[in-house]
Amino acid sequence: MSKIRVVIIDDSLYFRTFLSQRLIRDSAIEIVGSFGDPVEASKNVYMLRPDVLLVDMEMPKMRGSEFLRAVLPKNPTLKAVVMSSLSGNVFDAMHAGAIDFVEKPGSQQGATEETFIQDVVQKLKIASAAHVIPPVAAASKAAAQASQSVARPARYSLAGANASSLIAIGASTGGTEAILEVIKHFPANTPGVVIVQHMPPVFTKMYAERADKICAMHVIEAQNGDRVDQGTIVIAPGGDQQMHLRQDAKGYYVSLIPGGKVSGHCPSVDVLFDSVAKTAGRNAIGVILTGMGADGAKGLTAMRKTGAHTIGQDEASCVVYGMPMVAHQMGGVSEQLPLSAIGDAVLHKFLR
Q: Does position 282 have pLDDT exceeding 50, yes or no?
């Protein structure tokens, strides 16, 4: 089996050396290039023929997202993983075509060099096998930025919705962009939405703030007891708490409970979906999007068994066709759709 060919791009010689020495301890990885200058790296990428780029987000001369916009369109099979120290700019890189991101060591309490290397190795391997979704071309950058400040759509009737209607979404690798594609066209009076996207602590808050600027609905990172009202999207915080859906006389709310990993993750899509099945039943719509592994498959199946309509992203539009595939194989998916059709399909259920 051939090794994963990796090029490292980071302005710190010390950090590049550290990465090279630690990553080559894994027999599946080969470092074929290392650059401190992104401009120089862009000139050599084609010749080195890497499988994956490992790119720092903040560098002199060129940001990581700018580098990816310059390089990825010219190398259509190339994948990228970006490194960031608690910077919201990481989502610009995801929009530019990066497969995933990893948090740099020391950027938050508890993060260590060892956990960082383990995370990098795992994500390099996932990225090497991922499906390349064409990145946003540099020419469309202005249009993408303009869309973030577009006027929020007017209210219109969603006649099929009621006070108990709810939407639940789960995703992992490739999910930051996939989720936005689904929710960005939801009108402001859409039923409440709960989301688990596998992401480190702090980044979930940045992601919620970014999504809130793009969407007509109000998007927040969950705090314990937050209401899931009409017009509100609640995103589970990264860290050591599992998010559950609850209901009282006023309606739905979320409960954050400290706990270990379930289905390999905390927060876990399975935990959220299981609670949605028990709490909302047939009033819910479940959506499982791109991601490695099987988290969410059992929970989505439980939702379907209680009468919820469930949607799985199809293979062709997934960055990683893992979670939706397992959910489909388990019988948890009512219909499979391309990513571009999922948002409209969800809304259609409330228009009947």
A: yes
Please answer whether residues 295 and 324 qualify as being in contact, where contact means their C-beta atoms are separated by less than 8 angstroms. Answer: no
- Which of 233, 230, 196 minimizes the C-alpha distance to 213? 233
Residue 89: what pLDDT?
A: 84
Give the pLDDT mean for 295-324.
97
The amino acid that residue 74 corresponds to is K
Residue 60 has pLDDT above 90, yes or no: no
pLDDT > 70? residue 118:
yes
- Type and span of the H or E element at 141: helix 141-147
Nearest one of 326, 330, 298, 299 to 313, comparing CA atoms: 326
Nearest-Å Rg of the Cα atoms of the chain is: 20
Domains detected in the chain: 4-140 (3.40.50.2300), 166-348 (3.40.50.180)
Q: Write out the two tokens for 292.
A: 């490695």
Active site residues: 172, 198, 295
Cβ-based neighbour number of residue 1 at 10 Å: 5
* Per-chain mean pLDDT for the chain: 90
8 contacts 31 by C-beta, under 8 angstroms: yes
Q: What residues form DSSP beta bridges with 84?
A: 103
**Taking the mean position of all CA atoms in its chain, how far away is CA 160?**
29
Q: Are 194 and 272 in contact (CB under 8 A)?
A: yes
Question: For residue range 154-195, what is the model confidence (pLDDT) as tens digits?
Answer: 445 576 678 899 999 999 999 999 999 999 989 999 999 999
**Per-residue pLDDT tens for 242-251?**
999 999 999 9
Residue 139 burial (CB count, 10 A): 9
Rounded to whole angstroms, the Cα distance separating 291 from 224 reads 26
Structure tokens at 207: 């992601």
What lies within 8 Å, CB to CB, of 303 at 6+ separation is: 168, 273, 276, 277, 284, 286, 310, 332
